[in-house]
Amino acid sequence: RYHVDLGARPMNDVDVLLDKGDVERAMGVLHDLGWKCAEDVGVGRALGVYNSIPLAGGQGFEIDLHWRIMTDYGGKVPARELWDASLEADFQGTPVRVLSPEDQIMHTCAHGVKWNTLPPIRWIPDLMTIIEADRELIDWDRLLLTTRERNLTAGVRACLLFVHANFEA
Known about the structure:
four-stranded mixed sheet, alpha+beta, 8 strands
C-alpha cells in the first residue's frame, strides 16, 4: 500500500494476519505450494504459545502467519478488530486487505521501540511514509483511543514525537 516501488523498501518476508482458526488450513495450502515451517514447531503448540509462525520458501523469503500482532507492551489485539478496521488494496492485481492507517502506525511504532541488539531504524521512514500517504485518512482520535486501549501509548507517543522533532513529520 505504501511502497509502490517494491525495491524502495527491501524486505524478505510478508506478514499475513489470519483468524486463529484459519492458520492450520493456511499452512496446509502453503505447504502444498512448497513453503516449509521455518522452525520445528507443531501447529498446535505454536497456536498455544506463539503469536505467529514463519514459513520459509525458496530464495530466502518467508511468510509469517500471524493470529495476533502488537503483543509487546501488553497490547494484545484480536485479529477480528484489525480486520474490521482494515482497508481494501490491490497487490499486483489481487485484492487484499491492509491495516487501517491508525493500526499501521501503531504496528510500526510497536516494532520501532522494541529493543534489538541492532536497532532497526527502518521504522522511521516507514512511519513517515504512512503519515504522508494517509495524512487525510488518519483518524487521530481513533489512533489515540485505540492506542490507549491496546496499552501502546508510550511506544506510539515516543515514535511520533521522534519523527516530529527530528523530521518535521
